[in-house]
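Subject: Ascorbate-specific PTS system EIIC component structure
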Amino acid sequence: MNFFLELLQTPTIILAIVALIGLIAQRKKFSEVLSGTVKTALGYLVLSAGSSLLVTEILPFVGLFQEVFNLSGFATGSEIIVGAMQDAVPVIASTSAIIMGAGFLVNILLARITPLKYIFLTGHMMWINSVAVAFCLYSAGMSSGAIIGIGIVLQGIILTLIPAIAQPVVRKITGSDDFAIGHLTTLGTVSSAYVGKLVGKGSKSAEDMKLPEGLKFFKDTSMSIAIVMFVFYMLVVILAGPESVGAYSGGTNYLIYGLLKALGFTYGL
């Protein structure tokens, strides 16, 4: 019995089961079902490792930033936050896994019986949302059972509504309903689309912008993030000085430490 309970509380397994159900529902071949299920589990493990790495790489920056500028601050980022919450509060880790898996089943049910025919398949967004739901209910002082029960329903409703909210804009841009977008930034992006419709008539699309040949590397997300983090990290370590950085670097030269942390953050992201 403990085996099955622990199985249901393991996010990696739950997400793999979600992928398995989705692939079977799409009537994929056995080889595709097997491959997709295993890759989903591996993808979650990579995502979890990346989240942990992000926390490790950004915390020294936060500490040094506070010391240099005498300001209190914190690092944000969905993967960073939910990873930290799961590590810090075991109840959130275990309940969010069940919420993620069972909430997906509610999503399928709602897509079946309501006019909203949307099944949310963006795995890491499902994970982030399930942790956020579990955290909110946990913060409200609810028991594990209540967190799971209410969380499953909320998760299913949210997963169903988000693509539906975005679909009018998606349809406008693509000219069809061939696919939908499942992302937690939907409210912001849809609002931006309507604002853009009001104020952006006749303006040049960012897609049409042409960068000089020597700056085209900025189109590579990894390069852009690495450069930005390098600038910020080096600024902070230089202002903090070798002695302050030494408390974090374990003897590594403070400039090299800043460079490695900037690259490490990019790798984790």
